[in-house]
Amino acid sequence: MEPFKKINFSSENFAGVYHSVMDALINANNDNAPSYGNDQITQDTVALFKQVFGENIEVYFTFNGTGANNFGLSCMVDRHHSIFCSDVAHLYVDESNAPEAFTGCRLYPVNSLNGKIIIDDLRHKIKRIGDVHHPQPKVVSLTQPTEYGTVYTIDELREIKAICTANNMLLHVDGARFFNAAVQLNASLKRMSEEAGVDVLTLGGTKIGLMFGEAVIFFNPAINNPFKFNLKRSMQLASKNRFIAIQFQTLLRDDLWYKIAQHTNELAMLFEREIAAVPLLQVTCRVETNAVFLSMPKRLHQQMQEFASFYWWNEQKSEARFIFSFNNTAHEVMAFAEKLKEIIG
């Protein structure tokens, strides 16, 4: 009899490495290669990014999400600027004061609904342009999908981009789970980024099955820009860059990203269906990607921790969060639902 294995619904960061990504890492480890991105694997990967996102881009690879956001944003601002983001954005809530410390800019939270910034509040918060006593608005940063797993539509992105353009601002997207949003919208990665007016995209890799690594994509970059110098300054320049690049190459080749994101999105929707009739539980936010938020008694959350790990998310709302990773299965979802019904009664 196999030993009991606790189910992980806490985070993709708990999961291991997708098998073909691990194979690619092993294959990339067979020989020496030039350092700091001057290797053939990195060059081939950049070429693949241009096929997918558009020819007029520059892409750089980083170790982690906070570093990627710090690097990307630092290329967009000067130290007298301000950055606007959702009041529940990872940038604002879960990256400590790293963005403000590194960029020297003030973060202004914008009121949100189901994770998305409220457009009218964004317009209200952008003010005092030209006033020397006030930080000057420069960037709107969106999380796509949001912290609640909801997705900005293409039209919503374009509306926010229009506000940026009208105020001489730039649009940044924190795409830690960007691939899941693309599946939900049934849109190409290019349509969701370049064609929607995004200026800089932080593209997540870790949460979709990479061992480590994120990419930062600059759309329509100026000639002789300082990006490579900012990458070094941000301590994100990898000496053995090929090991980040080969993972993204594997992810983009043959649309592997789509297969993984579709799987995790479908698990979230299966989970929503399975717990729909369970007493004491209520889905608190529309399920659009690989996240489900439930209101539930805290005691029930504690009881279920022996069987599966998932976060207690919001004390005021008695809300728990479930995230589905590439190595989760429909069997785990069904087993969890059955356990819930057993405990409740």
Describe, in plain words, how this protein is organized in 3D.
With 345 residues, this protein is α/β, with parallel strands linked by helices. It folds into two domains: 97 residues, Aspartate Aminotransferase, domain 1 (Alpha-Beta Complex), CATH 3.90.1150.10; 237 residues, Type I PLP-dependent aspartate aminotransferase-like (Major domain) (Aspartate Aminotransferase, domain 2, 3-Layer(aba) Sandwich). Helices cover 39% and strands 19% of the residues. It contains 14 helices and 15 strands. Helix 1 crosses helix 11, helix 2 packs parallel to helix 11 and helix 12 runs parallel beside helix 14.
Secondary-structure map:
Layout: E1 7-8, H1 19-27, H2 40-53, E2 57-62, H3 65-74, E3 81-86, H4 90-93, H5 98-103, E4 106-110, E5 112-113, E6 116-117, H6 119-125, E7 136-143, H7 154-166, E8 170-175, H8 178-185, H9 189-192, E9 200-204, E10 214-219, H10 227-233, H11 242-252, H12 256-275, E11 282-283, E12 291-295, H13 298-304, E13 308-309, E14 311-314, E15 319-323, H14 330-344
Parallel strand pairs: 1-13, 3-4, 3-7, 7-8, 8-9
Antiparallel strand pairs: 2-10, 5-6, 9-10, 11-12, 12-15, 14-15
Helix pairs in contact: 1-11, 2-11, 8-12, 12-14
CATH level 4 superfamily of the largest domain: Type I PLP-dependent aspartate aminotransferase-like (Major domain)
Strand order of the largest sheet: 2-10-9-8-7-3-4
Query: Termini separation (Å)?
Result: 27 Å
Q: Which regions contain 5 or more consecutive residues with pLDDT less than 50?
A: none
Integer average pLDDT = 96
Would you list the SSEs in sequence order as H and E?
EHHEHEHHEEEHEHEHHEEHHHEEHEEEH
- E-strand count: 15
Q: What is the alpha-carbon Rg in Å?
A: 21 Å
The largest sheet, given as strand count, sense and whether it forms a barrel, is: 7 strands, mixed
The SS-based structural class is alpha/beta
How many H/I helical runs? 14
The top-level CATH class of the largest domain is: Alpha Beta
Q: Say what the CATH topology of the largest domain is.
A: Aspartate Aminotransferase, domain 2
CATH architecture of the largest domain: 3-Layer(aba) Sandwich
